[in-house]
């Protein structure tokens, strides 16, 4: 068994390298020719693989785009894990989302986001992207939730509610950034503003409910 482990490790590394080549090739072609104007044959040729090999990694061109979008979810989960233990979940959700946006922001990423928005066949994928992201965020936040020290019940649905708020802030902030002036602040600036507005309105609601 031990003799097989290095071989399996090399095999997995080779798969990861091939997958990365496909993603890089597809990204370059999509940005140069558009999503609908790019064929699987062209992606395979640029990645130096066969068309059959492409389908070993991705069922369709759309799934290449999904793989990029899932990469943001991986980054967000990592940022949540890096937050201080015992931190309030609302602060964790806000800080992790802002950090993930800062870390992922790049001219190429912005162009890819515009590609998805401007391609009718990909727009439905955006809704799926946000739904998957919300589910992953809720799961990551729930993993940080400890039972109350007094033995009482935890707030039902808190991770799911905060995930919904955080992803909503991402969507609204991204849209505000996309439609802003020619030299806008970075994308996380707009998401932070949406978060601040949400917390402000929630505090107002809490104060009104206490009267």
Any overview of this molecule?
One of its GO terms (molecular function) is DNA-binding transcription factor activity. Residues 39-58 bind DNA. With 211 residues, the protein is mainly α. It contains 9 helices and no strands. It has helices at residues 4-33, 40-47, 51-57, 61-81, 89-104, 107-118, 120-142, 158-178, 187-209. The longest helix has 30 residues, at 4-33.
Terminal residue distance: 69 Å
Uncertain ranges: 1-5
What is the number of domains?
2
CATH structural class of the largest domain: Mainly Alpha
Looking at this structure, what is the CATH superfamily of the largest domain? Answer: Tetracycline Repressor, domain 2
Rg result: 21 Å
Question: Regarding quaternary structure, how should these chains be classified?
Answer: single chain
Could you give a short account of the major beta sheet? none
Order of helices and strands: HHHHHHHHH
Total count of strands: 0
The SS-based structural class is: mainly alpha
Kindly estimate the percentage of residues that lie in beta strands according to DSSP.
under 5%
CATH architecture of the largest domain: Orthogonal Bundle
